[in-house]
Specification:
Helix content is about 30%, strand content about 25%. It is of the alpha/beta class. The strands form two sheets. Strands 1, 4, 5, 6, 7, 8, 9, 10, 11, 12 and 13 form an eleven-stranded mixed β-sheet that branches. A two-stranded antiparallel ribbon has the order 2-3. Helix 1 crosses helix 8.
Length: about 260
């Protein structure tokens, strides 16, 4: 792809360094090594972007994607790696997705709910991390079930068990771990959405945004995203998103 122009660098590294906002609640994309240092697919992509811009990288850590998205107008980060959800696009310009993650439900073994469609029924109570992109999507799309949003996936799992919710919504990878810890539970087959993980810039950085979109397409096309998925051993939960225009369009009504 083309070399970054001075206008691009000014947009994406206005302080002289790339401030990359990362959501540390998504263990498929961000993690910590044995010494507690950040690592993961999103971490490596941020550093690759910094290398191409010719600047150093500062990782700005957030406990969940909601906090990251809400700070977009506070001049705290220049590029964020998070789900491209329409509600967040008020403050952020998003690239097409670079990876996709399935979102589904966990229910009790004795539950009459057997399909994804069954969940959106009168009297069904669902708990979800409310500021996660899939939580925002459920808020907009569930018509009959009652949705309760909480702060974190850990809190959602705890309240599912303690308060007898009918379904726990989450990313399939996380729920696959929960089902081994929460006695008497199972996962529903299929998905209610494919979570689109993208990169974004705060509104008003046109040159930087265009370069970021091209960067995301390049790292997909050249195999870097696939290589990072393999390196970090997260292929059980992530798939490389299709090119923009081939099912990889920037989201309008789908979640990420």
């Amino acid at each position: 792809m083309a070399e970054a122009s001075s206008a691009v660098v000014a947009d994406l590294a206005p302080t002289g360094r790339l401030r990359a906002g990362l959501n540390f609640s998504n263990v498929l994309l961000t993690a910590r090594d044995a010494a507690g240092r950040p690592t993961g697919v999103a971490f490596d992509l941020a550093h690759e972007l910094g290398r191409r811009l010719g600047v150093g990288v500062d990782i700005i850590e957030y406990p969940n994607p909601g906090k990251l998205a809400e700070s977009a107008d506070q001049n705290l980060w220049d590029v964020g790696f998070l789900g491209a959800e329409p509600a967040r696009a008020v403050l952020i310009d998003f690239s097409a997705a670079y990876v996709e993650i399935e979102a589904t439900y966990l229910v009790r073994n004795e539950s009459p709910l057997s399909t994804i469609a069954d969940v959106d029924s009168d009297g069904v109570r669902v708990v979800v991390p409310g500021k996660a992109a899939y939580g925002l999507w459920l808020t907009a799309n569930l018509k009959r079930a009652k949705l309760t949003g909480v702060d974190t996936a850990d809190t959602a799992a705890q309240r599912f068990m303690e308060e007898n919710f009918d379904a726990l919504a989450g990313l399939r990878d996380r729920l696959s771990k929960d089902v081994t810890k929460l006695s008497g539970t199972r996962l529903l087959e299929g998905k209610f959405a494919s979570v689109q993980q993208a990169a974004g810039t705060p509104k008003g950085r046109a040159a930087g945004f265009a370069y970021l979109c091209a960067f995301i397409e390049d790292v997909k096309a050249t195999g870097l995203v696939a290589k990072l998925i393999e390196t970090h051993k997260v292929g059980h939960g992530l798939t490389v998103a299709p090119p923009a225009g081939l099912g990889g369009e920037k989201p309008t009504t789908s979640i990420a």
